Amino acid sequence: MINYIAGISLLFLVSACGGKITTSDIKGETWQLVEMTAGMVSPSDQEAELSMSQTYVFTPEMTFTKQQTKDASTIEASGTYTTKETSEGIFYSLKYTEALQIVGSCTGNDNEELLLRKDGKLQNSWMMCDGPLLVYEKQ
Questions:
Q1: Neighbours of 83 (CB within 10 A)
Q2: Which of 40, 72, 73, 82 has a CA that sits 20 to 30 A from residue 17's CA?
Q3: Distance between CA 103 and CA 75 in Å, rounded?
Q4: Which three-class secondary structure state does DSSP give residue 133?
Q5: Which of the 8 DSSP states describes residue 118?
Q6: What span, in angstroms and rounded, lies between the C-alpha atoms of 26 and 122?
């Protein structure tokens, strides 16, 4: 239930207009998947071991690369991104140009939203539509 409420709150924040568009001062940051929770499952029921490895690399040129390894198969995708600062943190809006099969999106298109939370962790917005909650830490 808490994930559901957090997801709805995240949806409202993403669509709220009052946020400030920012430029990135990221210098080749890499973010590694550290937590995966199935949609609407309480944290105590989380998988003990991640079923996949996933990373994002963001560049100062406002491009990104996402790499996912699962069952000895690796997929890589890339595109461009923008950032928007809100009271909840900084939102990353990713626009993919290739490898759309690893986009974590409620809409099923080539866009993905991530939130850099105040605790310094990055999380996806896919859980708003029963997707998994994925949390990343900066490497």
A1: 20
A2: 40
A3: 11
A4: strand
A5: T
A6: 14
- Chain-centroid distance of CA 91 in Å reads 9
Tokens of 2: 């808490």
Neighbouring-strand partners of residue 32: 55, 137
Chain-centre distance for alpha carbon 12: 16
Count other Cβ atoms within 10 Å, centred on residue 2: 9
| pLDDT tens-place string over residues 95-109 | 999 767 888 888 778
Task: Classify residue 110 as exposed, middle or buried by CB count within 10 Å of its CB (0-12, 13-18, 19+).
Answer: middle
Interacting residues of 93 by C-beta distance below 8 A, sequence separation 6+: 81, 82, 83, 84, 111, 112, 113
Q: How far apart are CA 123 and CA 59, in angstroms?
A: 18
pLDDT score at 98: 77
User: Which pTM value belongs to this model?
Assistant: 0.74
Helix, strand, coil percent content, the chain, rounded in steps of 5: 15, 45, 35
Q: Give Cβ neighbours of residue 48 (< 8 Å, ≥ 6 apart).
A: none
